[in-house]
Design a protein that fits this description.
By secondary structure, the protein is of the alpha+beta class. The protein has nine helices and 17 strands.
Length: about 475
């Protein structure tokens, strides 16, 4: 159950937070017991540990606890609805004696009545109805059911709305952003510099006694990336917030989902924004490897994935640990067969024989592997571009990314954005401005050797059958 999962996550983060605070107190206690101040190393470690603890606490307080409160409120409303339904649903009828027919007595809500159906229904739903209100409402319900012809009560049978079943806009989530390295964003700074080596020293066998020893300088360069601010706003009338049901919450959740989508989309293929080409995505990173795929068969594509795995392993000198592709591409591979019409991939609950990979077709928008190729986990992300023209003049190609995930880093203030309400800004129109914003910084340039992208005309829109 989602509520239980969030509670478990909160407890886990609180335990981690308390451990961090305990570690910082231990550092301080050591110095106090030795009647001295903390040295530079201890001071730096103390600040780091406290900052990590504060980050954990901030996530619990600003993200998880509000989310838990929303879910608990939803659960309470569902329970209230069930209890109400139980009070207004008549007992099961058996035979004609259980039916209700009104003859000469007027309906409690006809044109001669001074009673309001809407007021009585509202009071019943809130559990505040008087005995007369409840009796009128239940009698009306029985009359409508007994006659079983809604046309005869066109002015009394009120349309039913189901806000608890509200269907929000669909969102693709942030699979790729969640599987790479996630680090807390520093409290200060707009531009970040990460030093990286460009040339190693050299060691060689000495050619003879008293001969020159091999020598080569160790060179570095600065990898510079920038802070990015993602924000959105929407205006809400005072009447909608005060008279509607959870409309402000719906709008905030939609803004947050769009925030998540935009951050993830830029992690994958961010073109860079404003000065300094900020937030260049994985596909835009200079120095990554490219594997060209010109064959559209499942066998041909899987071979190219293996080639990309080999490229990363060879260039990075460590193994790739993720293959990321569009869900449509993964389903195409699962449906592919070899030259003897044998499945190319096996389902996760089967015992595969002579297959190249294994996985599920029904896992979409989840931050967990959907299968594997060559023993390397496969993730599907609906935000992997599928309208590219990297190998043809059309704009119908997708790509497959082979990655070593820990080398790609997303620094974030929080996974979800902060939110504000501004009532004065639009006070003249009785409207409220809802705003969300969040800070992040991203780089895939620490080790471009960790990235190999399979692309080309072989990855045009897959054709099933």
């Amino acid at each position: 159950m989602m509520i239980d999962e969030i509670r478990e996550q909160i407890q886990k983060l609180l335990d981690e937070r308390d451990a961090k605070y305990a570690e910082s107190r231990k550092l301080l206690a050591t110095a106090v017991s030795e009647a001295r101040s903390m040295n530079d190393e201890e001071t730096e470690q103390y600040k780091t540990v406290r900052a990590e603890a504060d980050k954990l606490d901030a996530r619990v307080q600003s993200e998880l606890k509000p989310a838990l409160a929303d879910l608990e409120a939803d659960e309470a409303r569902d329970e209230e609805r069930k209890q109400f339904a139980a009070t207004v649903t008549p007992a099961a009828k058996t035979g004609a004696a259980a039916q209700v027919h009104v003859t000469s007595e007027p309906s409690p809500y006809d044109e001669r009545s001074s009673h309001s159906f809407f007021m009585d229904a509202a009071m019943v739903s809130r559990g505040k109805a008087s005995r007369d209100q409840r009796e009128r409402y239940e009698r009306h319900e029985n009359e409508v059911r007994a006659d079983n012809v809604t046309g005869d009560f066109s002015s009394l049978v009120v349309p039913q709305y189901l806000p608890e079943k509200f269907a929000p806009n669909l969102s693709a989530g942030r699979v790729t952003a969640d599987i790479i390295a996630n680090e807390p964003l520093s409290d200060e700074g707009m531009v970040f510099t990460l030093p990286r080596a460009t040339q190693s020293t050299v060691v060689a066998a000495q050619s003879g006694e008293n001969t020159q020893v091999a020598s080569q300088s160790y060179d570095t360069e600065d990898l510079v990336f920038h802070l990015e601010t993602y924000a959105g706003q929407v205006d809400l009338s005072l009447q909608s917030r005060e008279r509607g049901r959870n409309i402000d919450s719906i709008l905030y959740k939609d803004l947050a989902s769009q925030y998540v989508v935009k951050v993830n989309a830029d992690v994958i293929n961010g073109p860079g924004h404003n000065v300094g080409k900020r937030h260049l995505g994985i596909l835009q990173t200079s120095g990554r490897a490219t594997v060209t795929c010109s064959v559209s068969t499942g066998v041909g594509i899987v071979r190219k994935v293996h080639e990309a795995l080999s490229v990363v392993n060879t260039r990075r000198l460590e193994g790739a640990d993720a293959v990321v592709m569009h869900p449509a591409r993964w389903n195409y591979l699962l449906s592919s067969v070899d030259g003897s019409n044998r499945p190319l991939m096996g389902l996760s609950d089967s015992v595969p024989q002579n297959v190249w990979g294994q996985g599920d077709a029904n896992k979409v928008n989840v931050v967990s592997p959907v299968g594997s190729i060559g023993g390397v986990p496969v993730y599907t992300d609906a935000l992997v571009p599928n309208t590219l023209s990297l190998g043809t003049t059309g704009a119908d190609e997708d790509v497959i990314m082979v990655l070593k995930r820990d080398d790609i880093i997303l620094f974030e203030e929080n996974r979800l954005p902060r939110r504000w309400e501004f009532e004065q800004t639009l006070g003249g129109t009785l409207a409220i401005k809802l705003v969300i914003a969040g800070f992040s910084s991203f780089t895939a340039g620490r080790y471009p050797q960790s990235i190999a992208v399979v692309q080309g005309i072989g990855l045009r829109t897959p054709v099933f059958g």
